[in-house]
Amino acid sequence: MQHFKPSIFMRVIKGFIGSALLTMGLMFIVITVDDKQFLENVLLRVIGVSSIFIGIHLLHRQFHPHSYNKPGTPK
Questions:
Q1: At what angle do helices 8-31 and 38-63 cross, to 10 degrees?
Q2: What is the pLDDT of residues 28-53, one digit of tens each?
Q3: 19 and 59 Cβ atoms separated by less than 8 Å
Q4: Alpha-carbon distance 45 to 29, whole Å?
């Protein structure tokens, strides 16, 4: 059975997207410090935290792809 190996270009693109999501999430959280409106604060923080988690997941998947194998498949 052949193993699928993603191209280096796609790995770089996914790494860039993950880094951008991390940075954008941090900026969304920092923006909420000066804002006085509660609902916008909560919404921006939720968007910021979720984009941080998505970015971390993308980057972790790039550097540790074997930890995402299904059980019972060879590494």
A1: 160
A2: 777 766 656 777 778 888 888 888 88
A3: yes
A4: 5
